Amino acid sequence: MKLSRAQLATVPALLGAGELLIALLICGVIEVFPQRLAFRHYDVPDGLPSSRVNVIYQDSKNYIWFGTVEGLSRFDGLRFTNYDTRDGLDHSQINTIIEDKQGRLWVGTNGGGVARLVEETQAVSDRFKPQPKDRKKFKSYRIGDPDESNRVNAMLFDDKNTLWCATDAGFFRSVEAANGDLKFELAMPYHYVAAKMAAVDYGQGHLWFGYFDGLIEVVDGHIIKHAPPEKSPTPYGSNSDDVNGIVLGSDGRLIVSSIKGVFEFAPPAKAGIEGEWRRLPIVLTQGQDILSISSDHKDSLWIGTNKGLIRYRNAQQTVYTAAQGLSDSFIHTLKNDRNGNLWIGTWSGGVCKLANQAILNFTTAEGLPNQNVKTVVESLDRRIYAIVDNGLAELMNGKVFPIFGWPSDLQLERGTIAQDNKGDWWMAAHDGLYHYKGPALDFQHGRRLGLGDGVSGRIGLAVYRDSSGTIWASTEDAVCRFDKAQEARLILQYSNRNPTTFITGDQSGDVWLMSSFGPNLRRWSHGKMLLLEPTEGLPTTRSYAGFVDSRGWLWIGLHQKGVSVTTDPSADHPTFTNYSTDQGLSGNNVRAITQDDSGRVYFATGRGLDQLDVATARIRHFTSADGLVGDVVNYCTKDSQGYIWVSTSKGLSRLDPRALHAADEPPSIFLSHVQVEGQDLPIPERGALKIPQAILSASQNNMLIEYVGLDFQSNEPLRYQHKLEGADPDWRTPTEQRSINYARLTPASYRFMVRAVNEEGVVSSEPAVIEFRILPPIWQRWWFLSIIAVLVGLIIYAIHRNRVARLLELERVRTRIASDLHDDIGSSLSRMAILSEVAKQRMTGMENQPISILTDIAESARGAADSMSDIVWAIDPRRDDLSSVVFRVRQFASDLLGSKGISWHLQVPAEFDWVKLNPEQRRHIFLIFKEAIINSVRHAACNSVMLELRILDNQIVGEIRDDGHGFVIPPPDQCSGNGTGGHGLENLRARAARLGGHLSFESSSAGTSIRLVVPLKRTMT
User: Fold this and answer.
1) What is the pLDDT of residue 965?
2) Residue 867: inside a domain
3) Pick from 357, 585, 602, 950: most CB atoms within 10 A?
4) Are the beta carbons of 81 and 74 closer than 8 angstroms?
5) What does the pLDDT look like over 69-109, one tens digit per residue?
6) Computed from CA positions of residues 450, 454, 460, 462, in that sequence, does the dihedral angle turn out positive or negative?
7) pTM greater than 0.90
8) Do 19 and 37 fall within a single domain?
9) What is the DSSP code (8-state) at residue 509?
10) Phi-psi region of 894 (alpha: psi -120 to 50; beta: other; left: phi over 0)
11) Nearest residue to 411 via CA among 392, 438, 435
12) 709 and 810 share a domain?
């Protein structure tokens, strides 16, 4: 029974407070046994600066901010970052938090005015400059001179980015000073101060503030006051209409809370008309005060009081206190985030997070007879029953009602209860099959079926109602079905030890028989039984459960092999696809299967509940960390209202798939900290998605990069993938590590990218990026290498120039020596020869002895002159070519051979001026030819001599041939000084060796041939 609004209005006048509470409990306005909620607690040991939280705010980047009495805290889902007066705040107690139209964060303090988070950073495009160590993270602004004006309780920015502040000294607005700084002016004074103030941005340029005397509306810079709904004294000495909470309701209404009530306020349609107030039927106990309100996406109103948390929805309220898992029953502030989570700030218990209320839990504390829930079944009249160990309970309107009279020996497992079309109940229990009259579960009118009913076997294993309403049942001995007369007809008698433990049917009318004891998967089709064998997509036929979804696909939960599905179960040989832990399942023992109204399939495992989105192949896990009452799931099923019921070993959970946020909503990602050689790179305090290129020196090649992903959809931690372009060929394997350290990077240009990955495998829509370039060391830079190249060139040029200078100097010395030898010594020797000849001529007729002496002098002088001429020719730098050798040989042959009457011929190449020789080469070649010519004249008795010089294969080849009588050529080691060989041949061989060549001899009675081969280095002139 529920009271109408008119009836509720008359109740307070008829009953006292205690009687009113009892009446409301009976009428169902207050829920007696609230479901136990999965609260997550955060307090000082987790990183909060204080256990008393005044305000909670979610910024545009998805960070959650907590304003406490001991400072400000930023939460990224894993870590708290705290700020206090050391960071630029003028006061540690934070009363309110807001962002302006530019996305900058502002906080209102309880004595230090307002403060803005400083996130402007220096450009990083030129050279790396470390973050100043003493940089203040907040810039504070005082509202006014009185201390009361700097106690800011609520604030909002309008469309013109003007800041409006409700303080203890009045209502202020910001104005820009002449120097560009921020100042404030009093917009509306008031003398009384509310215990707590509130504000909400209504949109369309409207701001609403609540204070002790009602509501303040700000429209285009104009202030409009609206009277409160009612006034009455309170124990605090203030008024019960002090507005401490405002949220936006449906149809453009405001939901306003005061200490003693919650109201709907319809703003006036035009100026001069008062708005309409309506009190909501929120029931408060004696001494219970309202402190804050919030609303979620499911039209639930959450009310924080000093005696617990109230959830108000559909005219029903549920109270949660420390008994239901709250860390503190004194609720100071509330905030619903964008992912549907409720954040609860308490007076002394820190923060509680209530995850998106897609899951409600029921345990023995809520009335279950036993926490080990075996199975859940929905009756034809849409009643939900939970079967537990030795008990039964009905769940109705979110409450648990134990059903008494359950037989103590009636033990049921999953999938062992069904209701036929008549409403009768069939159960497979540990001691046989049972049949109870319906439609209600009445254990006084039932019986155990035996051999007389056509049922054999002492243990019942499974029951199933097919599409025609026929009941199928199995025992450890057989499978049978019951006709309209409820008589059993035998379908299968077992001949092995693998009895049927689960029965289901497909859309074609075929019935599938499954066994968890062994490989015994069968299909009953048109009176025939088919035994299936394992295939590629069906790795085993040992199975726990089966399910046919809305598409007609058959899913089979397997033993240690996950789950297999066939899209055509009626085919002669169905083909299957398998899903296991390799594809992302949390466990390979799938005990039950069901489907929600959106077509997503659910699997009960020993490690939680898995959800498979068939369209995207994404698998989502639900465990106790996500709100399930337990992780060992026995059974799951969907009821007619679309809820998924999950039976676990620790209680029962109800999952509302419609309340789940889209699993493919990507997590955000930011670079939170970059450190180069121990010095911080300037990054905005809340992180950055992209950082301009940083230019680093060669020694700045050690880099620490930290990043953070924000996603409050799940309690599972995010994983991160990163890639360093320039070093990594592809994305690294996702890990939970939130930092990476690069040491000793080589000089190059790099681009670091990181993205967050949630538990469904969805990655950030855009990776966070930082680009940086490490310059090479000075000795590797182009300008340094260019300078070195120029210096090396200058050095080489200087060396070359010095060498050329020395060669020129040497050449001048050689020229001077040659000239001196020729001019002085040569002329003197020639003069001696001439004088000797003159003396000889004058002394002709005298005795022979003087004449002989003079003759010897003349010959010696001529020989010395010739030798001197050879020396001069050898060192003269003007003769450093082969043509000079040819000329000298020609001159010598002409003088010697011509004087002896021996014919001779010299054959040389047409062009040989390009062949350059050093003095040593010229001298030895000439002397070899000279010695050979002299030998031919002295020893060969020849009539002709043939001389030849030619260039062959980069070698100088010279030959001297005569037509004399020849001689015997001794080996080189037996040369002596006789006329046949002696020192002449030895000297020739020695000279050829000094030239790096070799000398060969051929001699016969027809003459002698000497062949000289000298390697030549070609030099072009």
Assistant:
1) 84
2) yes
3) 602
4) yes
5) 999 999 999 999 999 999 999 999 999 999 999 999 999 99
6) negative
7) no
8) no
9) S
10) alpha
11) 392
12) no
